């Protein structure tokens, strides 16, 4: 299973539901805006929906604030602003199919090869070998052809005589 995708996201969502005035839908957008792969599984989502609908999060909020004191207003405002920023990021994704600052795969694939690389078409893979780390493209270019590869390529060429 992927780390930080379902269970930890569910716990974070439950905590934020208790600690903030945001809805589960908005908090889910905020979490996905901050961590794009965040996706609680079906069972966890169902539990979160039941938790919100039961209003138990409001009871827990009262207990939390009674025990530890109210959330300082300046921190509450700063945290709320950051959550709203992440919500806006996810809204942008939902409307445009890409996150802010990225370009679509279609645009990246059909772009001008003379233009500088962008986030989606800049691919750099490092290969770790016994001789150190190298760029994958450089490593592939420097490798000799496998034995018989040139004979196979020659045999596959059509006879033009």
From TrEMBL:
GO terms for biological process: signal transduction. Belongs to the protein-tyrosine phosphatase family. Non-receptor class dual specificity subfamily. It holds the Pfam family DSPc. GO terms for cellular component: cytosol. It comes from the Eukaryota. This is Dual specificity protein phosphatase. One of its GO terms (molecular function) is protein tyrosine phosphatase activity. Residues 141-161 are annotated as: Disordered.
